[in-house]
Amino acid sequence: xxxxxxxxxxxxxxxxxxxxxxxxxxxxxxxxxxxxxxxxxxxxxxxxxxxxxxxxxxxxxxxxxxxxxxx
Length: 71
Description:
Layout: E1 3-5, H1 8-19, E2 37-41, E3 46-51, E4 54-55, E5 63-66, E6 69-70
Antiparallel strand pairs: 1-2, 2-3, 3-4, 3-5, 5-6
């Protein structure tokens, strides 16, 4: 399924949620540390984080989204 880059505002919001300990990935684990960017799946259901310049395209590591917002 195609992906597109996430905008800076969404990444900033996700990083605030991660810093507050409220951001979880699809496997239920807390997202640690800031993410550099992300790739949003075409259906807008998940964001694949970019860490250390590398997109992490594993579905369990994806961050669920609801209409572009953290779930």
